[in-house]
Design brief:
Elements: H1 2-10, H2 15-23, H3 32-52, H4 56-84, H5 100-111, H6 118-143, H7 157-171, H8 179-190, H9 192-208, H10 218-241
Length: 250
């Protein structure tokens, strides 16, 4: 409701558009994630039975197949949008389907960790980031597509590769710490969903005060903006969690 009110008042978005965006699971840019989770929660009991009766190879093939279908679908959709100027519409009820691949891969890498070095992971991630940036520039400048940022889509093969690689790296790193440090880490982890939900408000506020990568050198402004938004969002979420009436919202 807070984001819908902001869009209606600040962006002058019509009520009809707000209703349509809400049905599509995008009342605000980042909130699609919460709508997608509804479907994953609903299908989890079935997936629990599937993973309990499947081996690693079967689950891996299943996840890879879903990734392939989703990747081809998103690429075709982006291509059709670029040439026809028509955007496919759907409700949030089917948004979860392709994300079952990430769900299954997370389970696989947690149950059967893969030993991947931090150094190798960092090199591969940097190369993937560079390739993604170059492809975006090429599509934007030379092909002149209206929305070149589909390359950053979660089902672009490069993004899939990079995401799975980073997750695999973290699951293979043994972590030992003192009980006090563990409590602090667990508390910070409990704030992550709230940070995700409220961070656009702080990005908007920082932009209002001039802290943005669009006005200053991006190599400095973007990391600084991200760090500031993260810290302020964490403080805000902690304050919400400390308020009895509001704590269940995050």
């Amino acid at each position: 409701m807070a984001y819908l009110v902001y869009r209606h008042v600040h962006d002058q978005t019509s009520r009809t558009a707000l209703v349509i965006d809400t049905l599509r699971g995008e009342p605000y840019t980042h909130l699609w994630f919460l709508y997608m989770l509804i479907g994953l929660y609903a299908v989890t009991p079935l997936l629990r039975i599937v993973v309990a009766n499947s081996d690693r190879a079967t689950l891996t093939i299943t996840a890879a197949s879903i990734f392939l279908i989703a990747s081809v679908d998103r690429t075709a959709s982006a291509t059709l949008t670029a040439f026809t100027a028509e955007k496919n519409t759907h409700t949030f009820l089917v948004m979860w389907l392709p994300y079952t691949a990430y769900f299954l891969i997370g389970y696989i890498l947690t149950k059967w960790p893969s030993r991947i070095g931090v150094g190798n992971t960092l090199i591969c991630v940097l190369i993937s980031c560079a390739v993604t940036a170059l492809l975006t520039a090429y599509v934007r400048l030379y092909l002149e597509w209206p929305d070149p940022y589909y390359i950053y889509d979660w089902f672009n093969p490069i993004i899939i590769y990079m995401s799975v690689l980073v997750f695999a790296c973290f699951t293979s790193i043994p972590l030992s710490c003192s009980p006090r440090t563990r409590v602090r880490i667990e508390y910070l982890a409990s704030l992550t969903l709230g940070i995700y939900v409220v961070h656009p408000f702080w990005i908007i506020t920082l932009h209002h005060f001039g802290l943005t990568g669009m006005r200053h050198p991006a190599i400095l402004a973007i990391p600084l903006t991200a760090a500031a938004a993260f810290a302020l969002s964490a403080i805000t979420t902690a304050a919400i969690r400390a308020t009895p009436i509001l704590r269940r919202t995050v």
